[in-house]
Amino acid sequence: MNEGNFVTPFAQRFQMRVPVVQAPMAGGATTPAMVAAVSNAGGLGFLAGAALTPEKIASEVAAIRALTDRPFGVNLFVLDPASPDDATVRRALDAIDPLRADLGLPPGRALERYAPDFRAQLETLIELRVPVAGFTFGLLPAADVERLHANGQYVIGTATHVAEGLAWRDAGADAIAAQGAAAGAHRGTFIGPFEDALVDTMVLVPQLADATGLPVLAAGGIMDGRGIVAALALGAQAAMMGTAFLTCRESAIPEVWKTRVRGMSDTSTTVTRAITGRHARGIRNPLMQRLSETADNIAPYPVQNALTQELRQNAGRAQNGDYLSLWAGQGAPLGRSRAEGLGAAELMAQLEQEWLAAAERVAAFTR
Ligand SMILES: Cc1cc2nc3c(=O)[nH]c(=O)nc-3n(C[C@H](O)[C@H](O)[C@H](O)COP(=O)(O)O)c2cc1C
Domain 3-79+115-252+342-362 carries which CATH code? Predict the structure, then answer.
């Protein structure tokens, strides 16, 4: 492709030679090194800011800026402050404590805080003038979208079905991250039951593009150049890829998680709220299984998430994959043929070659 010749308006807007957005992934995957490597390789890197304090977001953004002059994004969860009643916390801990005991941890306790303060995180994104601000789990009020716009920031809202896409459009979003059912980790669903919102990427992307008229980023199950071309053919302006980057060298998740992702089949994952209180797709393991058996005890997100966190962190340090949340998308096996420990820049270079070759193959049919 010629310099200055971009495949979609979204790619042009961010001078992306490769129409790939590296999806934000909370839990340690999207380090500043990964975000910068992807942006430097002609894509758009995205930091997961949701689990970080405002101070940590600021230091991570500074680290990204030290590594790249190119645009990048930061993603947050739109959350109200959690103030669970004692009974909810007690019930959740009754189910979690036996698992803690397995790892030699004392019984858990109620916490002072269950998640970083969303409003403070948002102020930090505004202060730092992060070029692209992305949101999931909820809808940002139009007044906040306006503030981001007035500050020169681009706003991406996550939708898992058309009504959510229209809500983001009405709030003033610039683009929609279309999260299909194959996607790894938490569902962004914020309108209606999650079961109704497991819409396949294949049907979600064109419906969101038609309904909203906004640039749509296709997320869920895209692992290689074929997927990128398919996403573009469906009307997406870029592919948003998470699981493909999860096993990269720069991803700071525990090695055992990477090993399990590389060993997956297409049916290894399921969607559960047992671990965090919000539906998320991950590889089945004893943690998921045992917390699912006590479904009545599960506290809503972010309470359950915070109450299982110490347990999961300990498991991570011990490389114990049985007690970790092994978030991953259904497309993971498509990444198995790539070299282990591949750098994000190398993955981007492979994706660039692959999508151009796949597009050429499709074009050849018409000649
Ligand atoms: C480990 C992991 C963590 C994730 N964390 C976030 C997050 O913090 N914010 C977000 O908007 N999406 C998050 N996602 C979802 C991605 O943004 C995206 O929708 C998904 O990865 C796309 O599907 P794929 O995994 O099949 O590529 C996460 C995905 C994974 C695999």
Answer: 3.20.20.70
